[in-house]
Amino acid sequence: MNKQLPSSLQEIQALYPYQFSNPVLGVAVAKGWMPVFAQLCADIDQLLGADHFGFHWSQVKEKFGSARFYYRFQGRKSGTRLDIQTPNGVWSQHVPAERQIRTERDRSFQEIDQAVLKLTMAAEVATQRVCLLCGQPGVADAELGYVMVLCPGHQAQRREPAGLPRDFWETL
Fold first, then answer.
1. Checking phi first, is residue 75 left (phi over 0); if not, alpha (psi -120 to 50) or beta?
2. Rounded to whole angstroms, how far apart are CA atoms 6 and 95?
3. Which of 67, 105, 128, 157 is the most exposed place for a label (fewest CB within 10 A)?
4. Using one digit for the tens of pLDDT, what is the confidence trace for 44-90?
């Protein structure tokens, strides 16, 4: 584990350029979630070692109030991710790609793929408890439209009629 994590997306990209070499749709990380994402990138880098298996982020975004981390391995099939909003919360399922194991390297890749999935899912769960603005402990706030994980202070600020304009909150 890194003692000093990068604090901006630019710093993370400079440390792990291969992880951002081929983004499909883009990477957007809320300021409060930056430490979670920085740790995730560091953990994946340590897991992959010298052979990066063509790993790269295809999309990083907010969805249903928490972060979603989508990735690909160049030249290899990954599974499909399903996220569905239900009355009881978000249901998330990873559907593995059909794979035939042919070599020891394929087995190794499957283990790596599962380990990366486990790391990304844990990081997503972590963002469900962290204010997206400041990084302090937070809870999901859905009272004013979009679901956002906010600390008590930012929840109060969001509800303040004379506070920040509504479009500020909608663009987070």
1. left
2. 32
3. 105
4. 999 999 888 889 998 999 888 899 999 988 866 555 555 665 666 55
φ, ψ at 95 (rounded to 5°): -100, 110
Structure tokens at 163: 């506070």
Summarize pLDDT for 104-158 with one digit per residue, the tens: 555 577 888 889 999 999 999 999 999 999 999 999 988 777 888 999 999 888 8
Q: Give the residue among 27, 71, 61, 81 at the shortest CA–CA distance from 146.
A: 61
104-127 helix and 34-48 helix, angle to the nearest 10 degrees: 170
Helices and strands: H and E segment counts in the chain? 5, 7
